[in-house]
Structure formats: structure tokens, C-alpha cells
Amino acid sequence: MDNRLLILLTLAVGMIAVALTVQALVLYGMYRKSIDLHAKLNEFLPKAEALLKTSEKSLHDTRQNILELTTNANEILRTAKGHMARIDVAMTDAGNRAQVHMAKAEIVLDDTLNKVHSTVNTVHKGILTPIREVTGVAAGLRAAFSSFVTSQRPPVHSATQDEEMFI
Questions:
Q1: What CA–CA distance (Å, rounded) separates 154 from 150?
Q2: How far apart are CA 66 and CA 72, in angstroms?
Q3: In angstroms, what CA-CA distances link 47 with 8, 44, 124, 138?
Q4: Residue 68: half-sphere exposure toward Cβ, Cα within 13 Å
Q5: Among 19-28, 36-45, 64-73, 158-167, which stretch is predicted with the lowest mean pLDDT?
């Protein structure tokens, strides 16, 4: 049993030695890669710093441009609000004036129509009514004159026919 234990211990020590050797090789590989990475970083670092400086400058310029644009946009908005307020006042004033003029035009139109109606009534009463009366009197005089001049009696059948119409 001692042999077995000794073989087992020897195998364990051997495996540990192999593991340590592999670990040492891995660490050496990592060391080499870190040196390569360090060299590449030393090449890349100045470029990255230059890019960072350029980016910071661009960002600063962009911030200033955005600030200017925002200021200009706010000023334009304020001006537009002022113009809109003036336009609103002008439109309200124009609407009020239009209403006043429409009311005046309606009053003038009503007055004109009343005057025309009054004139028509005056003409009707003052001219047409007397003309009808004169025409009626003339028709009566004509009938009376024709009755005196002809002095004939109407025949019986026409007189009878006239009376039948009213019955």
C-alpha cells in the first residue's frame, strides 16, 4: 500500500508540476501580450488624445452654436408673438369696424326702402287715386251722354237677360 500511495503522490506532484508549468507558460504568454498591448497603446494613445482634444473643441463650438441658435430662435419667437398680437388687434379692430359699417349700411338700406315705400304710397294716393276717380267720373259722363244722345231703350231680351244674371 505504501507503493500505491507513493505512486499516487508522485502522480499528484507530477500533475501539479505540469499544471504549474502550464500556468507559467500562460503567465509568460500574458506577459508577452501585455507588452504588445502596451506598445500598441503607446502608439494609439497620442492619436486618442488628439481625437479627444478635437472632439472637445468641436463640442465646445457646437455648444456655442446651439446657444446662439437658441437665443436667435427665442428672439424670433418673441418677435413673432409681438407681430401676432398686433395682427390680432388689427383683425379685431377691422372686424369691429366692419360690424359698425354693416350696421350703418343696414340702417341706410332700411331708411332708403322706407323712403321708396313712402314715395310709392304718396304717388299711389296722390296721383293714381285721383286718376282713377277722374276716369270713373269720365266713364259715368260718357255713359250718361251716350244714354241722352241715343235715348233708346234696350230691347226686352237684353234687359231680361241682365236681370237673370243677378238672380
A1: 10
A2: 10
A3: 57, 5, 110, 128
A4: 6
A5: 158-167
- The 10s digit of each residue's pLDDT in 12-59 is 999 999 999 999 999 999 999 999 999 998 998 898 899 899 999 999
C-alpha cell at 160: 231680361
Torsion of CA 162, 164, 165, 167, to 10 degrees: 130
Q: Which of 83, 63, 85, 86 is nearest to 75 (CA)?
A: 83
What burial letters (b/e) apply to 11-36, b meaning 16+ CB within 10 Å?
Answer: eeeeeeeeeeeeeeeeeeeeeeeeee
Looking at residue 140, its amino acid is G
CA distance 39 to 45: 10
Helix (H/G/I), strand (E/B), else coil: 128: helix
CA-CA-CA-CA torsion sign (120, 121, 127, 131): positive
DSSP for residue 155 = P
Grid cell for residue 162: 241682365
Give the pLDDT score at 76: 94
State how far the Cα of 20 lies from the Cα of 8, in Å rounded to an integer. 18
- Give the CB-side neighbour count of residue 147, counting CA atoms within 13 A: 7
